[in-house]
């Protein structure tokens, strides 16, 4: 059984390795850097409180992503429409400052993101977890509660559907 110092060291290591990918996930889903940072902090705070209470966490990475996913769902539930001023304040207009190639890259990325959103739900989230979040099959399996085989098949089929939709 791990003592609190071991748990703290493991937690800090997870923070070092996962804070950036989790932040990107929040930012990707919410398009708001400040809110993404707030939710990132809340995610790690909730996880640490759970651990300190002595509750068992089998895979800290999967656990953190599960908390993050629940927080994103909660945000969507209480979301409201965003004004143009809010988009400008959040850096939306910064994409135009990168020059011609940056705009082309952004357009291509937007095309892929929009196309991913058109995938059936059973493929959409798994594709995002695998290719945007960089999660392994076993981690995705733990988060969604399906076998690794089911996850692998869905990633394969979802990727093929995405390629077909993008005409690749």
Automatic annotation (TrEMBL):
Signal sequence, start to end: none
Gene Ontology terms: biological process: DNA-templated transcription initiation
Alphabetized GO MF terms: DNA binding; sigma factor activity
Domain (RNA polymerase sigma-70 region) ranges: 25-80
Keywords: DNA-binding, Sigma factor, Transcription, Transcription regulation
Family under the similarity heading: Belongs to the sigma-70 factor family. ECF subfamily.
Protein name (database record): RNA polymerase sigma factor
Upper taxonomic lineage: Bacteria, Candidatus Tayloriibacteriota
């Amino acid at each position: 059984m791990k003592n609190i110092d071991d748990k703290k060291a493991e937690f800090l290591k997870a923070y070092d390795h996962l804070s950036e990918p989790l932040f990107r996930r929040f930012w990707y889903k919410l398009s708001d850097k400040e809110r993404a940072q707030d939710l990132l902090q809340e995610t790690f705070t909730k996880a640490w409180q759970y651990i300190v209470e002595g509750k068992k966490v089998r895979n800290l990475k999967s656990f953190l992503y599960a908390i993050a996913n629940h927080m994103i769902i909660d945000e969507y539930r209480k979301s409201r429409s965003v004004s143009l001023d809010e988009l400008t304040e959040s850096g939306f207009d910064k994409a135009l400052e990168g020059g011609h190639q940056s705009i082309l890259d952004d357009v291509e990325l937007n095309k892929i993101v929009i196309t991913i959103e058109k995938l059936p739900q059973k493929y959409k989230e798994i594709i995002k977890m695998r290719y945007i979040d960089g999660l392994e099959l076993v981690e995705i399996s733990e988060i969604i509660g399906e076998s690794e085989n089911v996850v692998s098949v869905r990633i394969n089929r979802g990727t093929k559907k995405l390629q077909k939709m993008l005409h690749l």
